[in-house]
Amino acid sequence: MRMIETKRLLIRPFISDDLPALYAILSDKETMTYYPRPFNVDETRSWIERNQQRYVDDGFGLWAVVLKRTNEVIGDCGLVLQNVDGTKEVEIGYHISKHYWGEGYATEAATACQHYGFSTFKLSKLISIIDPANSPSVRVAEKTGLTFEKEAYVFHKWHHIYAIQHLGPM
After folding, report:
1. Span 81-108, mean pLDDT?
2. Going by DSSP bridges, is the β-strand pair 62-67/147-154 parallel, antiparallel, or unpaired?
3. What integer pLDDT is reported at residue 168 of this predicted model?
4. Nearest-10 Cα torsion for 45, 50, 53, 59
5. Which PANTHER family does the record match to this protein (predicted)?
6. SS (H, E, C) 7-31
7. Which positions ≥6 away from 84 have C-beta within 8 Å?
8. pLDDT at res. 167
9. How many Cβ atoms are within 10 Å of 6's Cβ, its own excluded?
10. Average pLDDT over the chain, rounded to whole?
11. Which positions ≥6 away from 52 have C-beta within 8 Å?
12. How many helices (H) and strands (E) does the chain have?
């Protein structure tokens, strides 16, 4: 993967040195409200390793979101294969450090990953799997052009599936 660059962000593959920064994000109770629980260090390391394997197997995964002005990892964003109602779908997923919420970084990163998925991988559709109570994630999905498609039982509970169809060249 080439690095994706936006006005304020670099989006690049995870490296093992990203563990401390990502752990600070994924271990935070507030950030992980819509997950079963915050991650411990081993789960965070596994998260990085699983995404590194996705880069090999799928050509994409969740990538580190790096603030250009400080070179700080402030989250992750990317494309992940998911099984929804027996169909393989590509999800845009994202986590941004709570210290940077409300500044548009999730929208900026998700938009860049969406363009990358459509242009590089020629995907025709992208989804986001969102807990119905997670209104900030719903806002990010809507700002990036995704609309509510359906409810689906994913990850052991009901989620809302937001989707966007790619209708032509980017």
Report:
1. 96
2. unpaired
3. 64
4. -120
5. GNAT FAMILY, PUTATIVE (AFU_ORTHOLOGUE AFUA_3G00765)-RELATED-RELATED (PTHR43792), N-ACETYLTRANSFERASE DOMAIN-CONTAINING PROTEIN (PTHR43792:SF1)
6. CCEEEECCCHHHHHHHHHHHCCCCC
7. 127, 129, 152, 154, 161
8. 75
9. 16
10. 95
11. 13, 14, 61
12. 4, 8
